[in-house]
């Protein structure tokens, strides 16, 4: 029997701490609950939306339909050899705890993704990434319930259609409900600090022989110094994607703004640091009523107390407009609007 709760406040289920009321709420702890839950929606003629860790969402004040909170747990080894292993991880597992688990076992592959908030089930949707690593680099398969075909499906890496902060799961909003993923990690470590901030950290600590634990601890320290703890300062992490522009455009900007930060994607395109653009336009530390821009990282928009989705979207719109006017670059927000009724 489905235990559906009524009029649930989701303030504890979103890292921006928006007061959002779910008309109907159901915690999903097994795959077997999904079909009956969706049958219930059909019978009641209501929509549904899937809630994971709530770390990359902009919640509306009223959430109609049925909110499915994915809490399926479990981590198991599928295959193992002398050099690598395959882990099957359920969607309800905490992502950072998975990273810590892998580091403690000296398994390489996701240590650069430490301290990314949220649950495992959301990781393929955004193709989460940080410090030169993305989920697609280690992911083998995604298992999900296809709500249109009404059956479980298996997606290999290619079928996930991964791109920068994008995937088939993100584009087909509401169609797929992810239940677990398979990732491949290496048992033989070969560590190379790709980002200057990590190189600087190891140099400052006089660390020459770098271990996975060193990388993990370094990234946790760096992220903590730049990004606010959602429990203390409500936020949704990086609010804007780093825009990708033509290399020609970037070189033109470099002439006018010598300190602009960018990373080569290909011979024809360059990824620009959105945080630098926002800070250059004077938004870092900005406050207005219940919303603001985090003083230590211009990419992060914060809820300073009682903010709503409309207030934070209005701030994002003002920031985007100023970036477009100054640099002729369009910014795209990273968090997803919730709900996307299915």
Structure explained in plain terms:
The protein is an alpha+beta fold and 342 residues long. The protein folds into three domains: 5-70, 2-Layer Sandwich (Uridine Diphospho-n-acetylenolpyruvylglucosamine Reductase, domain 2), CATH 3.30.43.10; 75-186, Uridine Diphospho-n-acetylenolpyruvylglucosamine Reductase, domain 3, CATH 3.30.465; 235-338, Uridine Diphospho-n-acetylenolpyruvylglucosamine Reductase, domain 1 (Alpha-Beta Complex). It is built from nine helices and 20 strands. The strands form six sheets. A five-stranded antiparallel β-sheet has the order 6-7-12-10-11, with no helix packed on it. A four-stranded mixed β-sheet has the order 1-2-5-3, covered by helices on one side. Strands 13-19-18-17 form a four-stranded antiparallel β-sheet, covered by helices on one side. The model has no long low-confidence stretch (mean pLDDT 95).
Mean pLDDT over the residues: 95
The description of the largest β-sheet is: 5 strands, antiparallel
Strand order, sheet with most strands: 6-7-12-10-11
CATH architecture of the largest domain: 2-Layer Sandwich
Structural class, from secondary structure content?
A: alpha+beta
Shape: globular
Task: Provide the CATH topology of the largest domain.
Answer: Uridine Diphospho-n-acetylenolpyruvylglucosamine Reductase, domain 3
Number of domains: 3
Task: Give helix % range.
Answer: 25-40%
Write down how many β-strands occur, each being a DSSP E stretch of 2 or more residues: 20
Low-confidence stretches: none
The sequence of SSEs as H and E is: EEHEEEEEHHEEEEHEHHEEHEEHEEEHE
Number of helices: 9
Which range does the strand content fall in?
25-35%
Question: Compute the gyration radius: what is it?
Answer: 21 Å
What is the CATH domain class of the largest domain? Answer: Alpha Beta
Question: What is the straight-line distance between the termini?
Answer: 22 Å
């Amino acid at each position: 029997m489905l235990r559906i709760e009524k009029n649930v406040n989701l303030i504890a289920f979103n890292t921006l701490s928006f007061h959002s009321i779910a008309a109907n709420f159901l915690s999903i702890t097994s795959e077997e609950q999904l079909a009956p839950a969706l049958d219930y929606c059909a019978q009641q003629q209501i929509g549904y939306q899937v809630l994971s860790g709530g770390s990359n969402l902009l919640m509306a004040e009223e959430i109609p339909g049925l909110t499915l909170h994915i809490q399926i747990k479990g981590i198991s080894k599928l295959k193992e050899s002398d050099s690598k292993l395959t882990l099957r991880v359920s969607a309800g597992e905490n992502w950072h705890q998975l990273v810590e688990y892998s580091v403690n076992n000296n398994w390489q592959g996701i240590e650069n993704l430490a301290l990314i908030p949220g649950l495992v089930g959301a990781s393929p949707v955004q193709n989460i990434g940080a410090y030169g690593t993305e989920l697609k680099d280690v992911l083998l398969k995604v298992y999900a319930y296809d709500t249109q075909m009404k059956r479980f499906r298996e997606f290999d890496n290619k079928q996930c259609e991964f791109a920068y902060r994008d995937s088939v799961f993100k584009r087909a909003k509401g169609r797929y409900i992810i239940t677990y993923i398979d990732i491949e990690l290496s048992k033989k470590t070969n560590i190379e600090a790709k980002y200057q901030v990590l190189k600087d950290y190891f140099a400052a600590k006089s660390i020459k022989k770098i271990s996975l634990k060193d990388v993990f601890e370094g990234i946790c320290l760096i992220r903590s110094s730049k990004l606010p703890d959602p429990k203390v300062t409500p936020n949704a992490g990086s609010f804007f994607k780093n825009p990708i522009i033509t290399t020609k455009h970037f070189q033109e900007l470099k002439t006018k703004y010598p300190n602009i930060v960018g990373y080569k994607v290909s011979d024809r395109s360059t990824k620009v640091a959105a945080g630098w653009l926002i800070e250059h336009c004077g938004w870092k530390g900005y406050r207005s009523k219940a919303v603001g821009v985090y003083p230590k990282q211009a990419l992060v928009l914060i809820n300073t107390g009682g903010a709503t989705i409309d207030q934070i979207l209005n701030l994002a719109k003002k920031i985007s407009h100023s970036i477009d006017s100054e640099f002729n670059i369009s910014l795209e927000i990273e968090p997803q609007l919730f709900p996307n009724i299915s």
